[in-house]
Amino acid sequence: MSYSEDDYLQLSGLQHFSFCRRQWALIHVEQQWRENLRTVEGNILHERAHDETIRERSRDKITMRGLRVSSASLGISGACDVVEFIRGKSGARLNGEDGLWQPYPVEYKRGSSKISDADRLQLCAQAMCLEEMLGCPIPEGALYYGETRRRERVVLEEDLRTQVMQMISEMHEHYRRGYTPKVKPGKHCNACSLKELCLPVLCRSSSARTYIRQRVREDDT
């Protein structure tokens, strides 16, 4: 299957979708957004990584920032924070350059390494776009975390690629239907910038009426 460019979804939304399907729908289907400290810190980190005016070059490595990528087969588009092209025996041919250059995507994230695969899935989707555009396999990439200031090597295995394809297919279906999943409250809700829009507290033991009464009392005090 090949998607029209008009139907492309944001590649970065895969990380949101993996974290919480409702959060993704509120942002990408309903066009709602709020900042918090975590999102502001993440934006600052990405602004530095996405500075397209910076292109680093050494004899055997070219570093590109903010490289636009897309995939007609997945129906997504976005930008890679950093892609390093390393001269070697395999890879892609680059305009104006001799030999082969192996792409190595590096995604920048605030905080530290996480148990969930949300960040790894986003990195894998970037690599899959690059593979489709450049016509060469990309077996691994890395996640750079701002808190630890270290890279985490990520092997882009078949299981991870399968998850990417399944989730993006589900994203397209939700978007086509204009569907926003119901709330599934959890610890992750506390870190979400959309907590006040999503109102996960309404799904807990207390009723919506009780919650609204409590908020009215708070506003009156």
> Radius of gyration in whole Å, from Cα?
20 Å
Average pLDDT, rounded to a whole number, is: 84
Helix % is: 25-40%
Note the gap between the termini.
Answer: 58 Å
The counted number of beta strands is 7
Order of helices and strands: EHHHEEEEHEEHHH
User: How many H/I helices?
Assistant: 7
Note the beta-strand portion: 15-25%
Q: What is the general shape?
A: globular
Largest sheet data: 7 strands, mixed
The class by helix and strand makeup works out as alpha/beta
Uncertain segments? 36-42, 201-208
How would you describe what is shown here?
37% of the residues lie in helices and 23% in strands. Mean pLDDT is 84; it is low at 36-42 and 201-208. The protein has helices at residues 13-19, 21-28, 37-49, 118-134, 158-177, 195-198, 208-220, and strands spanning 9-10, 56-57, 61-71, 76-88, 100-109, 140-145, 150-155. With 221 residues, the chain is of the alpha/beta class. Strands 1, 2, 3, 4, 5, 6 and 7 form a seven-stranded mixed sheet that branches.
